[in-house]
Amino acid sequence: MDLRACVAMSLLGAFSTQAEGSLRVGGVNAAPGESVSGWIEVPDGVDPGTRIPVSVVHGARPGPVLALIAGTHGYEYTSILALPRVLARLQPARMTGSVILVHIANPPAFYGRRIYHGPDGKNLNREYPGRADGSISERIAHAITHEVIERASHVADLHCGDGNESLRPYSYWQWSGDAALDAATRLMALAFGLDHIVIDRERPKDLERSVYTSNTAILRGKPAITTESGGLGATDEVSVSAQERGALSLVRHLGIADTPSVAVEHPVFIDRNEVVRSPATGVWSPAVEKLQSVATGTLLGRLYDPFGRLLHELRAPFAGEVLYVVATPPVSAGEPLAFIGEISSATTSPQ
């Protein structure tokens, strides 16, 4: 057994949830060795409720509980299409541990074809841990926190570029400062198989204002990653299959089932990174593409008013790679326009 495998086995023991007896998520109750699909009901409140489709694949033997969460943003389709494929590959009678699949975390945004925000104008991935008496995005966050994240031992929040974002594949490795947790999270990012990994040090530390899905898990002591594959509302096979293969590789990494591994051996770590945001509302014309290397001051794009008058030229804040760029014209003040990352020499933990 190589060093990585030894470390992984040690960390799995530290973070495994031994799910004895049945495993209930919302209205879905699965006995050991059983796969059941159904719903987490989010009741009406200050606005209409919704129902979140979930599957619980409960292994015959106790072990880690992996939560795979798709569709946090409504126009991010690749993980939504990947999870039914993952479900079809899981055989609970042969599993040591369990998998919770959240097929569409944000149904109002998905069925409304909404970018970033739900019908309440809120971004679900900025509302955690949510509120039982809040608006729909807050109530969804509350439901996922208590019905999914709290029942899991490990969490993967599966994203892609939203309907306006042209994005290269990458994962986030969130650094908490807890050595064991950071090591376990790093191994999850490697196991998912995307070779570019963004080191994320800036997440909130307040359990009651965790903001992000993965951060909600990490602040509860559970290893968690965020992944990105696809964008622009596309459903191309390369991006969808990357989500499928990555999820199955996590299942193998955690020892839940003998699924294929796509763990990356030689990752590219992105340390310094910055989201370049729009200073005004206007019409955006990008001058760069995803994967492109840029120097400090490289023109990223121009922002115009509706009459074609130039408002701003946006430039790269430092040399790096374009991880995503907004590729559609409409933009509001404060919204992202591009994400620039600087390649790091780090291989174990940020300094």
Overall description:
By secondary structure, the chain is α+β, with helices and mostly antiparallel strands. It folds into 2 domains: 3-253, Aminopeptidase, CATH 3.40.630; 273-343, OB fold (Dihydrolipoamide Acetyltransferase, E2P) (Beta Barrel). 23% of the residues lie in helices and 32% in strands. The chain contains 7 helices and 19 strands. The chain has helices at 3-15, 78-89, 107-111, 136-147, 179-192, 213-218, 237-253, and strands spanning 23-25, 28-30, 34-42, 50-58, 61-70, 96-102, 154-159, 165-167, 170-174, 196-200, 224-228, 268-277, 282-286, 293-294, 299-304, 310-315, 320-326, 330-331, 336-343. Helix 5 (179-192) links the parallel strand 9 and strand 10 (196-200). Helix 1 (3-15) crosses helix 5, helix 2 (78-89) packs across helix 7 (237-253) and helix 5 packs across helix 7. The protein starts with a helix and ends in an 8-residue tail after the last strand.
